[in-house]
Amino acid sequence: MPGRRLQADVRVHRAARQGTAAFTLDVQLDVGAGEVLAVVGPNGAGKSTLLAVLAGLLRPSGGTVHLAGRALTHVDPAGRVHAAVPPEQRGVGLLGQDPRLFPHLTALENVAFGPRARGARPAHARADAAAWLDAVGLPDLAAHRPAELSGGQRQRVALARALAARPHALLLDEPVAALDAAHAPLVRQLLREQVARTGTTTVLVTHDVLDAVVLADRVLVLDAGRAVHHGPTGAVLAAPRDPFTAALAGVNLVVGTGERGAVRAADGRLLRGTDPVPDGVAAAAVFAPAAVSVHTEEPVHASPRNVWPTTVVALEPRGAAVGVRTSGRPEVVADVTPASVAELGLRPGVPVWLSVKATEVGVHLR
Ligand SMILES: Nc1ncnc2c1ncn2[C@@H]1O[C@H](COP(=O)(O)OP(=O)(O)OP(=O)(O)O)[C@@H](O)[C@H]1O
Questions:
Q1: ipTM summary value
Q2: Which has more confidence, 304 or 131?
Q3: Within a domain: residue 123?
Q4: Beta strands 92-95 and 169-173: pairing type?
């Protein structure tokens, strides 16, 4: 749908208060019509603050928000407010972890609320709501109240309610985080289908790599209020430049400086990758936990490998494998089988050697 572009350039300053440090959010984003942008980043990065500004719930210290060619927010550098469209008039739908349905209304009445608020006649609003409940796969539960629905069903009703208001843009804040493993994939899939079908411009805040992979065209990584990485989802996850995205993507990331063709890490470790790194250039080495072998004695190999001694810090379940987290700056995770954990006697505190083939280490200049 042309014209539903969302552009924002916002700054939010929060002064230090007792117990909290000062915080500045300074970020630009441009989401094309029908595009989905995932905003990821560590706790306190400013993701919720950004969404609140886009939704009109928080007035920025300065900046603009434009949606479909309309200025929704405009605060000039002197703090003068030129536009401050209230949340319900912005053409923006908000869906968070908590579905926030009206408890005394049925599923159908909840969904009909949007069309009614837009001035639709009751019969028309109800027919519209029934079609949306159909679209999210809940045609039989129209007469149920929220308390009679599962968490996943409530979230699907909330999605139908958000879309029934025909927003120009949808803001999703961890939309499946509160759902259990049985419901999250279904709701994620529904979100994908409905966002694509309606061509709704979407900004998604998430901690979950699957949300970003399944839903987002592009990813913006926020850290301490600033964008540290931005690009197509596949490219950002394949070549993470910051530890948060690397952890999100489930890979090891060692940042450092080029030395003798390798990457010299903060803890002195040298990591050689597929391509030589020019001396003195900032670079990142990226490798999968499955590419890391764990040994109890120093291994001797013919092919060029990176080998270093370290200590097991923790063992973590990672699907069918066990993630062996080892000390260092940064920590490196190796995926091994449960049988190997037993055979090698791995547990926190045990000294080990790690090895990873140079051909398994991707090198990215930063
Ligand atoms: N209402 C508020 N009043 C004062 N400070 C706040 C408020 N909300 C958030 N902050 C602070 O602003 C900063 C950014 O917080 P924000 O909630 O936007 O981060 P986030 O990336 O959404 O984090 P999380 O992933 O933990 O939800 C933090 O330092 C936080 O402590």
A1: 0.93
A2: 131
A3: no
A4: parallel
